[in-house]
Amino acid sequence: MSTNYGVAEDRLTHYACFRAPGPVRVDGRLDEEAWRAAPLSPPFVDLVTGGPAPLETRVSCLWDDRAFYVAFRVEEPRVRATLTRRDSFIWNDNDVEVFIAGDDCYYELEINALGTVYEALFVWQDALKPGGRFDRPEYDPRRRDVDLLGGFQDASRFGRHPRGKRWAFLDWDLQGLETAVHVDGVINDPAGDGRGWTVELAFPWEGMKPLFAGRRLPPQEGDVLRVDFSRFEPLADPARKPAPGWCLNAHGVYDSHIPECFSFVHFSGRAAGR
């Protein structure tokens, strides 16, 4: 089976997410037993073509009764970041990103090497209707900081998503989110003698419940989430347009906002490494 965007379903990545074998301390260092036991993903690939990325990026996931944990390992000789205000447009820095597909919506998180976070919730316009589950004051575009997302960044080339437009709630925060970054080297050092940076994220199940219409959380054996893991490196070559984007699996177009192309995360009740 193929998606509408030229990426066959059998080209989408499947990742086995095991239970954390011990406590997960969100400090960005990834040196505790839990992360040593978690499976490491394949290297990220070019967002459009699926070809090799010039710098290595890998992700690992774990879960327990409290949260879904994500860790990035980012190769980068010159670790750079400039944005410090929360909900800045972090994609203008080098960043890593997580998208979680919900029911008639999806959530986006971006973080740079300074630990600055951007969050947004995207709700399809056809789901934001009277009597629906988003028919609540907290999802009223007239009362919130919203933007309108219409389609791919290059609509003239790739067209638009067949489901149409979606509201971007820019002031939406996932409750209980924990984030941490560790830089191996000196950030913004012109000498560029670092090796990269690591990111650790905890998405509490309680905070994720608004994404779903009655789904059981925490998950059980065999449950699946659709999650996109990506990285953008716009400062690598300011003259290059569009900026390099890498992902766990290709989307076939230069756009992360395609839930049909998100990877499959399969939850196992077994502890990682056992």
Overview of the structural elements:
This protein has 274 residues and is mainly beta. It has a single domain, classed as Sandwich (Immunoglobulin-like), CATH 2.60.40. It is built from three helices and 14 strands. It has helices spanning 33-37, 155-158, 205-208; strands at residues 14-19, 45-46, 57-63, 67-75, 95-101, 105-112, 117-124, 146-149, 166-169, 178-184, 196-204, 224-232, 245-247, 263-271. Strands 1, 2, 3, 4, 5, 6, 7, 8, 9, 10, 11, 12, 13 and 14 form a 14-stranded mixed β-sheet that branches. The radius of gyration is 18 Å and the shape is globular. Residues 152-157 have low confidence and may be disordered.
Task: Outline the secondary-structure elements.
Elements: E1 14-19, H1 33-37, E2 45-46, E3 57-63, E4 67-75, E5 95-101, E6 105-112, E7 117-124, E8 146-149, H2 155-158, E9 166-169, E10 178-184, E11 196-204, H3 205-208, E12 224-232, E13 245-247, E14 263-271
Parallel strand pairs: 1-3, 1-14
Antiparallel strand pairs: 2-13, 3-4, 4-11, 5-6, 5-12, 6-7, 7-9, 8-9, 10-11, 12-13, 12-14
Task: Provide the descriptors you would attach to this structure in a database record.
274 residues; 14-stranded mixed beta sheet; mainly beta; Immunoglobulin-like
